[in-house]
Amino acid sequence: MLKWVLGIFFGLIGLGLAIGIGVFAYLYATTEVPQPEKFALAEKTTVYYADGTTPIGSYAEQNREIISCEGLPDYVGNAIVASENRTFYTDKGLDLKGIARAFINNVTKGTRQGGSTITQQYAERYYMGETTSYVGKAREAIMAIKIAQTESKDEVLCNYMNTIYLGRNSYGIQAAAKSYFNKDAKDLTLSEAAMIAGIIPSPSTWDPADNPDMAKARFKRVLNIMQEDGYITAKDHKAAEFPQTADVTQQNEYAGPNGYLLDMVRRELVASKTFTKEDLDTGGYKIVTTIDKVKQDAMQSVGDTRADGMPESIQVGGIAVEQKTGAVVSVYAGSDYLTQQLNNADQAMFEPGSTMKPFALLGAAQSGVNFDTMFNGNSHQHFSGITAEVNNALNINWGNINLYQATANSVNTVFMNVNEHLTPQRTAKIAHEAGIEGEIDTSSMYNVLGINALTVWDLAQGHSTIANNGVKNTLHMVNKVLSSDNKDLYNAPNENKQVFDANDCALVQKAMQGTTTYGTAAGVSSALGGRQVAGKSGTANDELAASFVGYTPSLLNVWAIWNPDADGNPQVVPAFGGYGVTSTGYPAHLFEEYMTQALQGTAVEQFTTPKDSGKIGGSDGTWGLGGGQSSSSSTTDDEEAKKQAEEEAKRKAEEEAKKQADAEAQQKQEFAQQCLANPSYSTECPNYPGTSSGGDGDTDVEQQPKPDPQPKPDPQQPQSQQQ
């Protein structure tokens, strides 16, 4: 029996060895050692819209040029050897431990890890994207063996230098020399060669333009090794100074607005720690985003359209989000990435103003305050810790009003009262819990009025949690990433974390619906076919920015405008096209224009009807006018004061509209007088020479459409009385 068992055992071993030898022989015979010009250099990574078939663009144009290495200075190749494989000239081209380690990591972890020798790295690059398979890794190892046996060290090094990825979309030393120093590789100095060689392990991340400290550290390391190994003298080392690199030239793939999308996708994936910049440049991935092409085209068109008289310096940022998933369906980051790389959706910052008030309103709901509680909505009030009096926009006295009315009309003094009870720390905490990552001053009562700069993305992240009934989802633009053979490598985050009570959020949504029906953005709801729309407008202190946040139950949209000078410093946003910044009319207009298109053909949805179980005056009866004052039990005098305040606001808005109309009429009259005095004044003159002037000689200048009256104001900073 023992002989029989041992016979089977050794027979199987023999069979396994025979099969192994056969497989090895087959792979050895069929594995080609390619020349650089035949190299299967990294496939492009392509980014797609949400449909998975329409491309947005690709990463890393393959900029490469194969050259002869005979004319290269010795220090070019030696710098690379010093950086990557000090034993290159003496080893057999193989590191068996490195092969085993890379094989295990590639198979078990799905990562791409090459060999430690230059020969192995060269082979690994040929099989880029295939080395996570057993066969692919085996072929890579066999290729390294064949290269070591059939090619000289100089040939291997030259082929390696001609194919390695060196950042800035450059494959090979010639392309890199031109990208970094605007010269041919044969003209590189020792310092320039050492700089390029130093960043080989991570060229996109260690590019001196992005990470000068790391690039310099790697540069010094290469020179130290070159001196230690006898490639250069101490004198050469001392004379070598870190070189000045050329400016980074953006590839044409980034032209226009799609450049922003490509950059945002890249940053999101690198931040996830799942991919490196090099992975995205050379991996040949298929990235499917959450961006809806139809909605993106609509948003780009709305953002690019400039109102009459709108200064060119005014910047616009926008974003649309499906709050139920956190998927970003469209962004307005700018018109052309190559012209302006600062992203207006997730990098440029502005003061959000009163769009921060809903977070304090949520705090009131959490504190058990019934939204029918009456508050003093008049101007000229004082609050703890503030010496200056607090006023509402245009110094309006709203009388005694509840939280619904205070939200719709963005009444500063009411929300300062709310923040006095919550404390600035609590208000900031609520905003951060909602997902806002930007800094919020926890020591200033004014934080409820939005004095801290945020991005459009950050503001959308915070409001999306309230809009989703208290469920927080991380905003994202990437749905999934597939390998070249369609294997899943990455999927969008799926947080779905309940951070707030759903009913509390529904109360805030209900209050914000007043904004779009009778408040600071009155008319927005009716313009969208009477849909329920929650909204909040905001104006920065001293009229430096304006914004609007609005949403239906399934789609949230944020717009903001600001006016930086040439150095990026904020300036006043002037009135233009009939829109005054104090009315925040223009961002609300952008919202209306975009949502009209984005919601076309979609079902009309209703917000959840909340139950307000809070107490009038709060649990301790000290909020607002106290436990005995609610909107249902307010006195006739209170109602009369409120009515008078609303009529006053309406009167002032009508006065502003009349002033605008009078100014247009005056302009028309002056133009007509100029035409009468000088018919050649303008080709628009009815009596311009060569045209018919009409029977009675009266001018007939075309009447220009009048801008809509500005909506009611929306306050920001009491000391400057913004709305």
Automatic annotation (TrEMBL):
Keywords: Carboxypeptidase, Cell shape, Cell wall biogenesis/degradation, Glycosyltransferase, Hydrolase, Membrane, Multifunctional enzyme, Peptidoglycan synthesis, Protease, Transferase, Transmembrane, Transmembrane helix. Residues 55-227 form the Glycosyl transferase family domain. Residues 640-667 have a biased composition (Basic and acidic residues). The keyword Thylakoid does not apply. One of its GO terms (molecular function) is peptidoglycan glycosyltransferase activity. Residues 609-723 are annotated as: Disordered. Residues 319-560 form the Penicillin-binding protein transpeptidase domain. It holds the Pfam family Transgly. Residues 615-629 have a biased composition (Gly residues). GO terms for cellular component: outer membrane-bounded periplasmic space. Residues 675-685 have a biased composition (Polar residues). GO terms for biological process: cell wall organization; peptidoglycan biosynthetic process; proteolysis; regulation of cell shape. The chain crosses the membrane at residues 7-29. It comes from the Bacteria. It catalyses: Preferential cleavage: (Ac)2-L-Lys-D-Ala-|-D-Ala. Also transpeptidation of peptidyl-alanyl moieties that are N-acyl substituents of D-alanine; [GlcNAc-(1->4)-Mur2Ac(oyl-L-Ala-gamma-D-Glu-L-Lys-D-Ala-D-Ala)](n)-di-trans,octa-cis-undecaprenyl diphosphate + beta-D-GlcNAc-(1->4)-Mur2Ac(oyl-L-Ala-gamma-D-Glu-L-Lys-D-Ala-D-Ala)-di-trans,octa-cis-undecaprenyl diphosphate = [GlcNAc-(1->4)-Mur2Ac(oyl-L-Ala-gamma-D-Glu-L-Lys-D-Ala-D-Ala)](n+1)-di-trans,octa-cis-undecaprenyl diphosphate + di-trans,octa-cis-undecaprenyl diphosphate + H(+). In the N-terminal section; belongs to the glycosyltransferase 51 family. In the C-terminal section; belongs to the transpeptidase family. This is Transglycosylase. The lineage of its organism: Bacteria, Bacillati, Actinomycetota, Actinomycetes, Bifidobacteriales.
